[in-house]
Amino acid sequence: MDATAQRRELRQRLAEQRRALSPAERIAAAQGLRRSLEQLPEYFTDARVAGYWASHGELPLNLVIPPLANRGQQFLLPVIGRGKHLRFAPWQSGDAVQPNRHGIPEPAAPGELLEPFQLDLVLVPLLGFDRRGHRLGHGGGYYDRSFAFLNEQVRPTEPLLVGIAYDFQELEIVNKEPWDVALDFVATNRELIDCSMSDPELETPA
Ligand SMILES: Nc1nc2c(c(=O)[nH]1)N(C=O)[C@@H](CNc1ccc(C(=O)N[C@@H](CCC(=O)O)C(=O)O)cc1)CN2
Ligand SMILES: Nc1ncnc2c1ncn2[C@@H]1O[C@H](COP(=O)(O)OP(=O)(O)OP(=O)(O)O)[C@@H](O)[C@H]1O
């Protein structure tokens, strides 16, 4: 099996595993995720926090989003733009949404669209991750394209990228492609992982 077929099979296995969770497991995970994010000071202080509308069995952010508004922080959802670039629209509970081309809700009539560099903290959806912060997504390359500018900067910087995942989405090694943008942290239902602290032994030789 070639590398592309392997990646496809891995994506399928991870997506199925996620979809097979019971409602009780999903609720428990959402509570665990909130506790993990509460370990991250930026979650309490950053002015502009982007997330996602959970679909395909993704870990729900519904316990993570409401406290932001209470603290006066802005929450934003991704909007698919031209050339597979993401922009981000402020969204509050009750604001109208409409499905994008993948069937995922996005703000229907955004008053304002922010560019990725204008964000402070981004909660990034993913299918698989490793402790170095390498990420396996749905294969659309949306996040890699939109945050490619971070690869020319010393990390961590703003925006801070925090992958959001169930613990079983952790992989030993996610092979890095040249265009991949690494995550600074991963927050799971069990822990907050600081990817800059990852064991250098895990680094693949150049
Ligand atoms: N909740 C959420 N919103 C998001 C993302 C995400 O991963 N999760 N994205 C992250 O990039 C962007 C949308 N990208 C997506 C890319 C592919 C698929 C998808 O369903 N792909 C199919 C296979 C490809 C296809 O035929 O479209 C699949 O995985 O079954 C969904 C979203 C922006 N919004
Ligand atoms: N900065 C970039 N410029 C041009 N093409 C890119 C860039 N980043 C990614 N791509 C393209 O997007 C495709 C998908 O990339 P990849 O498999 O890493 O997506 P992903 O991170 O899994 O998806 P997503 O970010 O949507 O969740 C790649 O085949 C690559 O050609």
Automatic annotation (TrEMBL):
A GO molecular function annotation here is: 5-formyltetrahydrofolate cyclo-ligase activity
Q: Which InterPro entries match?
A: FTHF_cligase (IPR002698), FTHF_cligase-like_sf (IPR024185), NagB/RpiA_transferase-like (IPR037171)
**Keyword ATP-binding annotated:** yes
Cross-referenced Gene3D superfamilies, in alphabetical order?
Answer: NagB/RpiA/CoA transferase-like
Protein name per its UniProtKB record: 5-formyltetrahydrofolate cyclo-ligase
Record key words, sorted: ATP-binding, Ligase, Magnesium, Metal-binding, Monooxygenase, Nucleotide-binding, Oxidoreductase
Please list the reactions this protein catalyses: (6S)-5-formyl-5,6,7,8-tetrahydrofolate + ATP = (6R)-5,10-methenyltetrahydrofolate + ADP + phosphate
Enzyme nomenclature, EC number = 6.3.3.2
Q: Which residues form a coiled coil?
A: none
Statement: the UniProt record of this protein carries the keyword Magnesium: yes
What Pfam families does the entry give? Answer: 5-FTHF_cyc-lig
Q: Which family does it belong to?
A: Belongs to the 5-formyltetrahydrofolate cyclo-ligase family.
SUPFAM superfamilies from the UniProt entry = NagB/RpiA/CoA transferase-like
User: What does this protein need as cofactor?
Assistant: Mg(2+)
